[in-house]
Specification:
By secondary structure, the chain is an all-alpha fold. The chain has one domain: Orthogonal Bundle (Non-ribosomal Peptide Synthetase Peptidyl Carrier Protein, Chain A), CATH 1.10.1200. Helices cover 45% and strands 0% of the residues. It starts with 23 loop residues before the first helix and ends in a 9-residue tail after the last helix. 18% of the residues are buried.
């Protein structure tokens, strides 16, 4: 299913997300794919250590769109300013999503 983040933007049709995953590996994969799909720098490698701004060239609008996409896909609360400031790398985004899901018991180990 394709999510329209902001109808009419160049990003609205680039991210196709499956049903919400339940296991840790599926969450990590889905978050990484979402980051890659919205990354302004299409040539940069999206690895756990890739920096969102410096390496993937995320700008403020792309960061907001990523946050909205992940909030919607995983039914997350809006990210607070302090948490947002601490996120610099792909791994930080993945860890943030996993932590929120773990807090509410939404992860099932070994499920696919």
């Amino acid at each position: 299913m394709t999510r329209a983040l902001c109808p009419g933007t160049e990003y609205s049709s680039r991210v196709a997300l499956p049903a919400r995953p339940q296991d840790r590996n599926a969450v990590l994969t889905l978050v990484g794919e979402a980051i890659a799909a919205l990354a302004p720098n299409r040539d940069a490698a999206v690895t756990a250590d890739a920096r969102l701004v410096e390496d993937l060239e995320y700008h403020s609008l792309a960061l907001v769109e990523l946050a909205i996409l992940l909030e919607d896909e995983f039914a997350l609360e809006r990210i607070d300013v302090e948490s947002a400031k601490s996120i610099e790398r792909v791994a930080d985004v993945q860890r943030y999503v996993l932590d929120r899901l773990e807090e509410r018991g939404a992860l099932v180990e070994g499920a696919s």
